[in-house]
Amino acid sequence: xxxxxxxxxxxxxxxxxxxxxxxxxxxxxxxxxxxxxxxxxxxxxxxxxxxxxxxxxxxxxxxxxxxxxxxxxxxxxxxxxxxxxxxxxxxxxxxxxxxxxxxxxxxxxxxxxxxxxxxxxxxxxxxxxxxxxxxxxxxxxxxxxxxxxxxxxxxxxxxxxxxxxxxxxxxxxxxxxxxxxxxxxxxxxxxxxxxxxxxxxxxxxxxxxxxxxxxxxxxxxxxxxxxxxxxxxxxxxxxxxxxxxxxxxxxxxxxxxxxxxxxxxxxxxxxxxxxxxxxxxxxxxxxxxxxxxxxxxxxxxxxxxxxxxxxxxxxxxxxxxxxxxxxxxxxxxxxxxxx
Length: 339
Hints:
Helices cover 41% and strands 19% of the residues. By secondary structure, the chain is α/β, with parallel strands linked by helices.
């Protein structure tokens, strides 16, 4: 089975070709960072228009790289949600139209399911079942993954996701967009322990997260201070340490409670070097093993959607009931339910 994958949930246009036997044959990605940089964040209308411009050229490039043509494609997978509704509609409309023209099934994929399965693109993929930490700009969740499509949320953020807190704290420090990556780079220059920020919700039982108060603690710490390079580096390090400590301890608890021996880390924040190092240690101390996708597959990409589509269609998923686009779509909820 050979699948064309299309990702347009936010500000990155991803197109990939995945083959069940040969693996990933092509992966093309266009980032809109330069487009949104002047605004300090993603402008939904601009994102949607840019997806329209980029999709067809990227499909042509991906097919050429994979030495494939429409006749050799068995299906088309696209991100149906969650995400920016305009951007999702562009990708869904394009994929369904392409499927109609080529006479191929087009199946909608849950964006977070794509992230959960991204480590399966690696040479040594994890086996089901496993515990997953999804940590990105829009989501922070601990998920019990029993198998394909069998997901149970163990805990999630009650307010800001970890990636969102990274971006908002970066703005407080005057860092350029995209802020999360800039803050992580700056933290490499900071002194550990110079600022002791709170570790949210570690003083109580459970697996829920909350990062909005951590951002507020940074704002309070900066009040009345001159933003020197050294100060910003120390604050960035203190903030990153607090996030890493919080995520790591919650994963330790979840491994103990779930009994899983495999920890999968997915999403953009999963590329953070310190977080990876700490979670490897936590997994080892818990008698488990940690699995990470390579950094380019932590952020949004078409490869993870193509893989998920391949697995879904191989399992007999009905493309006829695939959702068009859903801005809100809880992980584990049936695609045909909800609004």
